[in-house]
Design goal:
Layout: H1 8-23, H2 30-37, H3 41-47, H4 51-79, H5 84-98, H6 102-116, H7 118-142, H8 151-170, H9 175-191
Length: 199
């Protein structure tokens, strides 16, 4: 159970994150969130227009968690002196590793499309996922690992690959096995991006 400290907004977000992650958006009522947060219903609606607005905040923070893990993995690989391709793959591995975090993915890929709607989910998800992918592709292009090509359309396609891979792992009966199998398939697909002259 989460320890609810800090101001009322942060307590609401912390408790909602725990409950949405554990039991899902539709199974979590505002009464339970308010009670567990130790705040009044008025405080909830002071900070958030409704439960959906609270979920949006929880979703954004979940996406930030994934983005931070990706950047940290890539930075660690770079600090080890890995080449640009290995740094790029380290970021992908970090993304796929988050797929076995069931509460995180219940928020990000199970409930979010339904709660936010497909268009809003894609737009909000793109703020972090797309930026990370574009950054990795630019680095590969600058170092000659990626064959010269427009970055934006490729990044959009890879964001779709990322989202579908994570959703498939998160929804699998055996997520750990799925992480291994889908991870291997993603690696094979990504290998096709490298400039054959430099691979």
């Amino acid at each position: 159970m989460v320890t609810v400290k800090g101001d009322s907004r942060e307590r609401l977000v912390a408790v909602a994150t725990e409950l949405f992650g554990a039991q899902g958006y539709h199974q979590t009522g505002t009464e339970e969130i308010v009670r567990r947060s130790g705040v009044t219903r008025g405080s909830l609606y002071h900070h958030f227009a409704d439960k959906e607005a609270l979920f949006e905040e929880v979703f954004d923070r979940a996406d930030q968690v994934v983005s931070a893990r990706v950047r940290a993995a890539a930075a660690a690989a770079a600090e080890r002196g890995d080449d640009a391709w290995s740094v790029f793959l380290a970021g992908w591995d970090a993304v796929l590793d988050t797929a076995v975090d069931a509460p995180l993915q219940r928020i990000r890929v199970v409930d979010a499309p339904a709660v936010l709607g497909w268009q809003k989910w894609q737009e909000r998800n793109a703020r972090y996922t797309l930026a990370n992918i574009e950054g990795g592709l630019v680095s590969l292009l600058e170092q000659g690992v990626l064959a010269p090509q427009p970055i934006s359309p490729l990044a959009v396609l890879l964001m779709g690959l990322s989202n579908q891979a994570v959703a498939a792992i998160a929804g699998a009966t055996d997520p750990v096995r799925a992480r291994h199998d889908i991870g291997a398939a993603v690696r094979r697909l990504l290998d096709g991006l490298r400039d054959a002259r430099r691979a």
